[in-house]
Every structure is written in structure tokens, then in C-alpha cells.
Amino acid sequence: MTTPPRNLPQLLAEAKRWFDDALLASMRAAGEQPVTVGQAAVFAALDEDGTTIAELARRMGVTRQTAHQAVHALIGMGLLEQAPDPASARSRLIRPTTEGARVHRRAQDTLEVIEGVLSDRIGADAVAALRAALTLPLGEPPLVEAP
User: Fold this and answer.
1) Is 50 part of any domain?
2) Which of 81, 110, 144, 145 lies 20 to 30 angstroms, CA to CA, from 31?
3) pTM of the model
């Protein structure tokens, strides 16, 4: 019995895991506080001036409860803080602390190095083509019928 070829969503998920594993291991090796993939995703979804938990959850594709748990763990680690939302008295903005901003910059720099490793492995043209393809607008998800 032969193994069926992996579909594109599986390949994309595997590539994301490769980046996540490399980033988190590199950050731990550099002496940074260990975070989970979900906690790291919070930083990727944050606006510079702060973001509400509801908006973070939407951007991350998780429930508010899941986003809330990740945010409060990061607040406990001293990487995030809450601030009043000037647009809404009922909302709070989540934003990086000075330490959180430093760690996020280090993570961004680390990702650049990891991309360089990928470029060395599969070629700069392949990485450029991948980036170009993934930044094209996809449009609304299609509704299709299986054959």
C-alpha cells in the first residue's frame, strides 16, 4: 500500500511547524523565557498600539477564551500589559511591555535567520517564489462540490 501524497494544507502546516519549532528552540537556546506556539501567535497578531482580546482571537482564529488564556500567561511573564482602550471604556488594549517588545524584535530577527537557512536549503528563488505566491490575494474561500 502506498502513502497518498500530502495535500497542500498538510504541506503548509508542516512548513509552519518547522518555522515554529526552529523559532521556539532558538529562543530557548538564547535564554529567553519559553513560550508556546499559541503564545507566540499573540505577538504576530498584535498592533503596535495595542489590540483587544476579541480582535486578537479573530486574527488568530481561536476563541476569546483561548486568546485570553494566552494573553494572561504572557502578562504573567511580564511580556504583555493591559491598557485602557481610548475608543471604548469597556475594552482594554493588550500591548507589549518594554521586555515584550525586546523579545518580539529578537524573534523577528531570529525568523529572518531561519528564512536564510531555508533559502540555503531550497534556494533563494524558491523562497522568493513561495513568498510571492503566498502574498497574492486568494479571494473568498470557494464553496465547491466534491466530484
Assistant:
1) yes
2) 81
3) 0.86
